[in-house]
């Protein structure tokens, strides 16, 4: 039971940290537009203030790997718990 | 009456013995015992002999059977149920995210996040969910298969 809870705890931490990291990463990427150019071959968007802006292609960082680790740990923890579970005898 | 039974065998194990009552008098064999023994080949009873090695192996087997860990239980196992649910949710989520990413790529994007981030993140995350969900389903099925016994479920 302790192993299961530890694994679930690590999974929750990995998922939470990964999600927070991803949001921060995307916010950072979105906060740095590049000037539009007709020769760059990038799509042009209109930002919240109505100005035209362009963005480099988004490259995900280690945040997605952290989320993936959390996703993998959840079934592992559940499998261990299921294999160790015994009906309570009164 | 009593001669209906085959004298070579115990009447208690022959048809019609219960109908006559088990408290009935013992049935006398039709033929003298010596003649029966002469006509019917008697099986030779050989006493099994255990040497020391056999006895040790037998003792070890008995120990292994009695001391080994009790097998896990699948009936009423809440963790196994959770594993099934997680497997279904992960597979469904992975497929849905993949379809959403495809739809975003094909449709008109309104913002840079919708154009760049959503398809990339979905394409990166959906294999994790899909594969993990499938593996969780296989493991749950395996756990059920290991513990399956005829008439248990």
Name the descriptors.
heterodimer; A: 90 residues; mainly alpha; two-stranded antiparallel sheet; 57% helix; 7% strand; rod-shaped; B: 153 residues; 5 helices; elongated
Give the SSE map.
The complex is a heterodimer of chains A (90) and B (153).
Chain A: H1 2-30, E1 44-46, E2 52-54, H2 63-84
Helix pairs in contact in A: 1-2
Chain B: H1 17-20, H2 33-39, H3 52-67, H4 78-106, H5 112-146
Helix pairs in contact in B: 4-5
Describe the structure.
Chain A has 90 residues and is mainly alpha-helical. Chain A contains two helices and two strands. A two-stranded antiparallel ribbon of chain A has the order 1-2. In chain A, helix 1 (2-30) runs antiparallel to helix 2. The longest helix of chain A has 29 residues, at 2-30. The model of chain A has no long low-confidence stretch (mean pLDDT 88). With 153 residues, chain B is mostly helical. Chain B is elongated. The model of chain B has no long low-confidence stretch (mean pLDDT 76). Chain A binds chain B through residues 4, 22, 26, 29-30, 33, 43, 45, 53, 55, 57-60, 64, 67-68, 71-72, 74-75, 78-79, 81-87, and chain B through 70, 72-80, 82-83, 86-87, 90, 109, 111-113, 115-117, 120-121, 124-125, 128-129, 132-133, 135-136, 139-140, 143.
Summarize the structure.
The complex is a heterodimer of chains A (90) and B (153). Chain A has 90 residues and is mainly alpha-helical. Helices cover 57% and strands 7% of the residues of chain A.
């Amino acid at each position: 039971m302790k192993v299961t809870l530890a694994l679930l705890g690590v999974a929750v931490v990995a998922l939470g940290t990964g999600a927070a990291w991803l949001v921060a990463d995307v916010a950072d990427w979105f906060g740095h537009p590049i000037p539009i150019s007709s020769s760059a071959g990038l799509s042009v968007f209109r930002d919240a203030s109505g100005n035209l802006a362009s963005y480099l292609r988004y490259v995900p960082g280690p945040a997605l790997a952290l989320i993936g680790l959390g996703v993998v740990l959840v079934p592992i923890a559940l499998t261990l718990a299921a294999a160790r579970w015994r009906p309570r005898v009164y | 009456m009593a001669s209906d039974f085959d004298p070579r065998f115990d009447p208690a194990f022959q048809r019609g013995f219960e109908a006559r009552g088990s408290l009935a008098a013992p049935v006398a064999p039709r033929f003298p015992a010596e003649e029966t023994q002469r006509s019917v080949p008697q099986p030779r009873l050989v006493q099994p002999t255990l040497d020391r090695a056999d006895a040790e192996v037998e003792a070890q087997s008995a120990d292994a059977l009695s001391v080994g860990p009790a097998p896990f239980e699948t009936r009423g196992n809440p963790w196994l149920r959770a594993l099934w649910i997680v497997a279904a949710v992960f597979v469904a989520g992975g497929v849905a995210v993949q379809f959403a990413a495809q739809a975003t790529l094909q449709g008109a994007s309104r913002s840079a996040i919708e154009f760049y981030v959503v398809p990339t993140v979905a394409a990166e995350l959906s294999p994790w969910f899909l594969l993990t969900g499938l593996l969780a389903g296989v493991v749950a099925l395996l756990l059920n298969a290991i513990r399956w016994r005829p008439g248990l479920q």
